[in-house]
Design goal:
Its cofactor is Mg(2+). The chain has 286 residues and is α/β, with parallel strands linked by helices. It has one domain: Dihydropteroate synthase-like (TIM Barrel), CATH 3.20.20.20. The chain has eleven helices and eight strands.
Length: 286
């Protein structure tokens, strides 16, 4: 099933649906199939262009699960969401899971490893003919923080993403279906994250759509920490996430991946209205 990169005429919104017991923000909240599907439908109704379904936590320090467990978690949810008319992306680093999810109706593969975790992924995505989100990645979650060492984070992330693009194209992936993600929070310190967000133009200059995934991440908790140094909890980071969404949209990001769709849709509407000098971006009215 061939599928194009979504282009709704504004910044694309991916709503995060973690069907895991151990994700950093909402682990365990949507492991129940009925609750997961209801939340996915609610995100679609709030404006999400895609609901990004993941069955394996990629939080720092997370242990891996096997492919069978990952498929058991996500496939029933993907099928039910597709039956409800929801457009679904699958968040996985495994070719076998991507293939099964696309067969179940997913139309985008979101691979946080950029194809490095599974040598079969590039060929699988090429055969599936669906968009592939290639994220900058240096290693699995159980050791990602020890890999957060750069002399020039912007230049090195750009170079390493170009290498992933080259490998994907060599494997037969259509360049027109490639989306890049700088990997905010993955083998990055807070300073690295802010530097990459400030210089999105460097990645946009490569000519590929760029996705920003900063939602509720630790560096926002650090930014908003209390006077005693206590980090703002994930549930209190949606305002900061929305601010980043607005900034990313204003600077040309193709999309943002978020937990709270409603506040992000508002932020993107504000960014579009600011850029256009009118409110027609969201309502169709002047």
């Amino acid at each position: 099933m061939a599928a194009p990169v979504p282009q709704p005429g504004r910044c694309v919104v991916l709503g995060i649906l973690n069907v895991t017991p151990d994700s950093f923000s909402d682990g365990g909240r949507y492991v129940d199939r009925e609750h997961a599907v209801a939340h996915g439908v609610a995100m679609r109704d709030a404006g999400a262009d895609l609901v990004d379904v993941g069955g394996e936590s990629t939080r720092p320090g997370a242990a891996r699960i096997d492919a069978a467990t990952e498929q058991e978690r996500i496939l029933p949810v993907v099928r039910d969401l597709v039956a409800e008319g929801v457009r679904v992306s699958v968040d996985t680093t495994r070719a076998s899971v991507a293939e099964a999810a696309v067969e179940a109706g997913a139309t985008v593969v979101n691979d946080v490893s950029g194809g490095l975790a599974d040598p079969r992924m590039a060929a699988a995505v090429a055969a599936l003919r669906v968009p592939w989100i290639l994220m900058h990645w240096r290693g699995h979650s159980d050791r990602m923080q020890e890999l957060a060492s750069y002399e020039d984070v912007i230049g090195e992330v750009r170079h390493e993403l170009v290498e992933r693009v080259d490998a994907a194209v060599m494997a037969g992936v259509d360049p027109g279906r490639i989306i890049l993600d700088p990997g905010i929070g993955f083998a990055k310190t807070a300073a690295h994250n802010w530097a990459l967000l400030r210089r999105l133009d460097v990645l946009l200059a490569l000519g590929f759509p760029v996705l920003v995934g900063a939602s509720r991440k630790r560096f926002l908790g650090q930014l908003l920490a209390a006077s005693d140094g206590t980090l703002r909890p994930p549930s209190g980071r949606d305002g900061a996430t929305a601010a980043i969404s607005a900034i990313a949209a204003e600077h040309g990001a193709w999309g943002v991946r978020v937990h709270d769709v409603e506040s992000t849709m508002d932020a993107i509407a504000v960014a579009a209205a600011y850029r256009l000098g009118s409110s027609r971006a969201r309502t169709g009215e002047q």
